[in-house]
Design goal:
This protein is mainly alpha-helical. It is built from 13 helices and 2 strands, in the order αααββαααααααααα. A two-stranded antiparallel ribbon has the order 1-2. It comes from Pseudonocardia cypriaca.
Length: about 300
Amino acid sequence: MTETTSARIAADLRSRIAAGEFGPGDRVPSTRDLTRRWGVAMATATRALSLLQDEGVLRSVRGVGTVVAARPAGTRPARRRATASPARDDVVRAAIEVADAEGLATLSMRRIAAELDIPTMSLYQHVAGKDELIVLMIDRAFGEQPLPAEPAPDWRAALEIAARLEWAAFRRHPWLAPAMSLTRPQPVPSALAYTEWVLGALDERGLDPITAFTVHVMLFSHVRGMAVNLESEAQAEAESGLTADEWMDAHVGAITALAEGAEFPFVTRMTGLDFDLDLDALFELGLRCLLDGLRGVLP
C-alpha cells in the first residue's frame, strides 16, 4: 500500500512538473507538505521524492530543499560520469558526492549505480554491500587532509591539531559523524591514524595506555558529538525551508510561554536575548575547556 501511495504521489508531482507548475530549480513541496496534503507518513512522502530523485527529475540542494532538476521532465538524466567498468575509487567517490549533496539516508546501491550509469549489480564487483561502502567512504573522507608528518611540539598542540582536522572533515561531509560509531568503531585506516597521533603525543607524558586511550575517546567524542548536528540541521533546513535562526524566531513565542507558565525564570530570560547558536564557536569553547581540564590529569 505504501509503495502504491508513494508512486501516486510521485506521479502527481511528475505531472505537475511536466505541466510547468514547477520549473528547473524550483523547490517542490517538502516531505512535511506532502504528509499534510496526502495524509501519509513521513516515510511514504520521503519515498515519493526519492523515486523522482532516482529518475533524475528532482535533486536535493542543501539549505534549499528538493528542487526540479535542470532538465526537461520525463527525459533521461545526464550522468556526471559514464563508464562500463568503474573502479572501486569511482564507486566510493560517487557515493560521497551523493551523501554530501543529499544526506546519508538517500544513499543506496541503486542510487550510486544511477550516478555511474551502470547496472546496480555491477557495484558488487567492488564492494560487498552498503556497509562496506560506508567504511570506504569514511576512510576516504578522513584521509583527505592527512595529519602533519612532523610531530607536534607538545601534547596540547597535538590534540588541537587532531581535533580541528576531525572537525574540518565533519564540516566538509555532514554525513560523516553520524556514520561513525563511538561504541562499535569501524576498521578505518585513516581514522586509526588519528588514534595513533593522539596516543603518541600522550605516551610522551608517561600516561598508562588505558588512560591515554580514554583521553583519545573523550576528545573524539567531543568533536563527533558536536558534528552529529550538522547533517540533521541540513536536512531540517531542506525540509522546512527555514534556517535554525528562522526556526527559532518562529517558535520562540511558544518556548517563552512554556517557560513562563512553568516558572522557569532563567530560561525565560534567555528567550529574550539575542543568542546565536554557532556550532563552530561551541566546538572551540568545548575543546578549550577539555584541554584546560586535562592539565590536571597529565603528569
